[in-house]
Design a protein that fits this description.
The structure is a homodimer. With about 190 residues, chain A is an alpha/beta fold. Chain A contains six helices and eleven strands. In chain A, a hairpin with a 4-residue loop joins strand 6 and strand 7.
């Protein structure tokens, strides 16, 4: 998506360790009008799939998920990273490994909010090795619901998460796919 | 706001320890269309205040903040609960005490995303003792920006946070104010 690639090139920064920083519009400051345009694009891609629920993961997936859900006229459920006192005891659980923080954590969704009839679109800000996305798919399948596909804002296509999922037959739509990036050479996108 | 009070009465649950659970529309499953109506009400209340930014705190504030920001046509900034590898080093910091989890934690906002000219509306899902709200006000003031007021979905008016802030001259608009609640007697709202 040209609009997003331009935004990444003009506002994104590559920090130490060749980490992409898009805090300015995606995951700290949220450019709400812009993300709503991305949500419209996810709707164009998945509008014929009978989506009735969007699943994401706290915290930075919530904004893009809500702004996408408006176009689908459906609710959002966000998986929580820890089991708090305020959540119902009956939850679906999956494990995520965070390469950023180099540790595993559990994500949970209340059994009240995923049901066998659901056709669920997963929305997230990033896809790299696919640990979070695979965990979300597991939660949906554990509920007997259908994971229809994923809508990702930025895919690090030089890591294997997206490729492996597509090869397994799972639909992944990424609005920007980065083939390579470094402080030295900048960002190269792939189709 | 009658619409919200009715929603709390029909969909909310009072759990063990007289804790209000509104996971079904506010902070686990997000009823996006409904929260957009709440956002419209926040806009009605604050539309003449020259708001150019909305500040909230991860995770459960993000959805309502984004759905409110659409009505103001302004960006959202969400304060992060821990300093991650992906955030800029230069941050404003404040401490929050969580009575739910009985511990303190820091919240941070990058100095890039709060500026002296900003007129900031704080949006959050709950207000009880006011620890999070006071911390967000501190972040805004540390940046030299103006905290115009707060838009709260549910205020526990039997706790002191809202009263103390209003007495100090700070504007707090809560769409539902709970005067008392218990498993035995249910929920009573106050004006």
């Amino acid at each position: 998506m040209k609009l997003l690639e331009d935004k990444i090139l003009t506002e994104g920064k590559i920090g130490a360790g060749d980490v992409l920083k898009v805090d300015c519009f995606l995951n700290h400051r949220i450019d709400v009008a812009f993300l709503s345009e991305l949500g419209k694009e996810f709707h164009r891609l998945y509008k014929d799939e009978g989506i009735n629920k969007i699943l994401t993961i706290e915290a930075s997936g919530i904004g893009i998920a809500c702004l996408t859900a408006l176009h689908f006229d459906c609710p959002v459920v966000f998986a929580k990273k820890t089991k708090t006192n305020n959540i119902y005891a009956d939850v679906y659980t999956a494990e995520v490994y965070s390469y950023t923080h180099q540790r595993s954590y559990d994500i949970v969704v209340s059994k009240d909010f995923l049901s066998p009839g659901d056709r669920v679109l997963i929305i997230d800000d990033f896809l790299a090795k696919g640990s979070a996305l695979n965990a979300l798919i597991k939660l949906i399948r554990d509920a007997g619901a259908t994971p229809v596909g994923a809508g990702i804002v930025i895919e690090k296509a030089f890591q294997e998460g997206g490729r492996e999922l597509r090869e397994s037959g799972f639909r992944v739509e990424s609005l920007a796919r980065i083939g390579a990036m470094s402080q030295k050479d900048g960002i190269q996108f792939v189709e």
